[in-house]
């Protein structure tokens, strides 16, 4: 069943929403407050005041994913809370905590979503909770320049390399398992579900350039991740798994058990290829058209998605080759706009765009952002 179909009408909590409401006081006890919609005894504000339209009311906003809810800490910091079944996804908690440990958390190549807190299950429950920073889809604020996309690629490549170097595979590298810590891009605190609106749902936010305000990207969702001790190599798994089922070896006759590292490398390369270089069909969303100016990535990505998993480079090789490629790009290329193939900026629009880019250059703002 499609989990989103649990959310039927804003005036009535769906089954999963009832779950969150029933944990409201539990989270409050630990210092996390859910939105008013999940407060026990909640009555829709538009029913209490008939002059209001429900779509103008913050407490009518439904969650995006039934397994994740937003909250605020006692100091006002926004966070997200994910429920984890400890009987079936215990490794997800272990992997998340591993990369948030003191020895790994501050490493510059660590792009695993940080775990701020782990809440144990209530008595008789099998659900634990991971508390993490509130992250956003990185397309809520569109990529403006090729340099901004280069920064995104660099971070997720480094992040997966870091996981592999530490003998962990991700297991589900796909577009919506990469997120952005984008709070700094918004002019005022954004709503966690509709970030183009303010947190209080009154008025709209404006956004800043990633070039001026570099952000950090994270790999999320370790539900299919696995520790891979070197002494137990090779690390194989029965296919298929994950959200990208285009992995060539998944369709081999049989199919044989597949190398976990090679599948990760295919998926992360295919993620970039299908969103910037090739068409991708997204069902009701239609086709995502390729963007111009990214053919410099084609040779590397072609190797990453090679139909022969043995011929794919390691993530360490990917990162090394990527850096060489980027060093060969000039400043104008990196500051060029992200446009669909076959389109271009109009005359006035182009003048405004390039005036802004040259202003950044004169101010010493790098063409490739670097979050610190």
Structural features, described:
The chain is of the alpha+beta class. 29% of the residues lie in helices and 13% in strands. It is built from 10 helices and 13 strands. Strand 12 and strand 13 form a beta hairpin. Helix 5 packs antiparallel against helix 6 and helix 6 packs antiparallel against helix 7. The two termini are 42 Å apart. The mean pLDDT is 93.
Topology diagram in text:
Elements: H1 15-22, H2 24-29, E1 32-34, H3 45-48, E2 68-73, E3 78-85, H4 90-99, E4 117-119, E5 127-133, H5 146-165, E6 168-169, E7 178-181, E8 216-219, E9 226-227, E10 236-237, E11 258-259, H6 260-277, E12 280-281, E13 287-288, H7 298-304, H8 315-327, H9 331-335, H10 347-362
Antiparallel strand pairs: 1-2, 2-3, 3-5, 4-5, 6-9, 7-8, 10-11, 12-13
Helix pairs in contact: 5-6, 5-8, 6-7
Which secondary-structure class do the elements indicate?
Answer: alpha+beta
**N/C terminus separation:** 42 Å
In helices, the fraction of residues equals: 25-40%
Output the strand order for the largest sheet: 1-2-3-5-4
Please, how many helices?
10
For this entry, what is the oligomeric state of its chains? single chain
**Counted beta strands:** 13
* Beta-strand fraction estimate: 5-15%
The Rg value, from CA coordinates, equals 22 Å
**Shape by Cα distribution:** globular
Largest sheet: 5 strands, antiparallel
Uncertain runs = none
């Amino acid at each position: 069943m499609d989990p989103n179909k649990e959310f039927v009408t804003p005036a009535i909590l769906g089954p999963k929403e009832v779950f969150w409401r029933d944990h409201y006081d539990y989270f409050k006890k630990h210092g996390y407050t859910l939105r008013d919609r999940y407060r026990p005894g909640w009555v829709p504000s538009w029913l209490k005041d008939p002059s209001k339209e429900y779509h103008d009311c913050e407490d009518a906003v439904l969650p995006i994913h039934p397994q994740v809810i937003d909250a605020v800490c006692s100091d006002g910091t926004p966070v997200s809370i994910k429920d984890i079944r400890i009987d079936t996804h215990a490794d997800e908690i272990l992997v998340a905590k591993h990369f948030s440990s003191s020895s790994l958390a501050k490493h510059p190549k660590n792009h695993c979503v940080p775990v701020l807190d782990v809440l144990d299950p209530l008595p008789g429950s099998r659900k634990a909770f991971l508390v993490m920073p509130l992250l956003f889809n990185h397309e809520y604020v569109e990529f403006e320049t090729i340099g901004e996309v280069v920064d995104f690629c660099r971070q997720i490549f480094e992040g997966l390399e870091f996981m592999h170097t530490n003998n962990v595979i991700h297991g589900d590298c796909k577009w919506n398992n990469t997120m952005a810590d984008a709070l700094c891009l918004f002019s005022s605190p954004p709503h966690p579900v509709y970030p183009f609106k303010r947190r209080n749902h009154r008025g709209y936010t404006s956004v800043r350039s990633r070039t001026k305000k570099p952000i950090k990207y994270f790999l999320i969702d370790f539900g299919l991740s696995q520790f891979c001790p070197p002494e137990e190599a090779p690390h194989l798994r029965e296919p298929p798994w994950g959200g990208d089922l285009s992995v060539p070896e998944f369709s081999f006759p049989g199919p044989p058990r597949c190398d976990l590292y090679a599948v990760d490398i295919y998926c992360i390369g295919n993620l970039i290829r299908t969103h910037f270089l090739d068409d991708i069909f997204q069902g009701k969303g239609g086709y995502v058209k390729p963007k111009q100016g990214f053919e410099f990535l084609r040779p590397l990505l072609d190797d990453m998605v090679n139909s022969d998993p043995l011929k794919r480079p390691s993530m360490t090789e990917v990162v090394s080759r990527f850096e060489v490629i980027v060093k060969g790009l000039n400043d104008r290329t990196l500051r060029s706009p992200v446009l669909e193939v076959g389109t271009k900026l109009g005359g006035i629009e182009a003048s405004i765009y390039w005036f802004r880019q040259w202003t950044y250059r004169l101010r010493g703002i790098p063409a490739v952002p670097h979050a610190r």
